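Peptidase S24-like protein: structure, please.
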Amino acid sequence: MEPTLRPGDGLLAVRSSRARRGEIRVFEHPMRPGFWLVKRVDHVRGDRFEAVSDNPDAGAVDSRVFGDVPIAGSFRVVWTVSARR
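Here you go.
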């Protein structure tokens, strides 16, 4: 999620039954159980959303690979704290 979030940054996320374009969400990787991702919502389609990375130079580990993500079971990021001082 660089440059928005960098390694070591903290976040607080809450369960939310509604996703909105532009918000950041945390969810379990659909193809790798136990591996959690932090991505931005690009589009909402019914009860699913398209998750994209903020970093265009990063490899595609988003909806381009695993498709739309169910809103149920995902969390909306409501607060972040930078590890940088």
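Notes: The chain has one helix and six strands.
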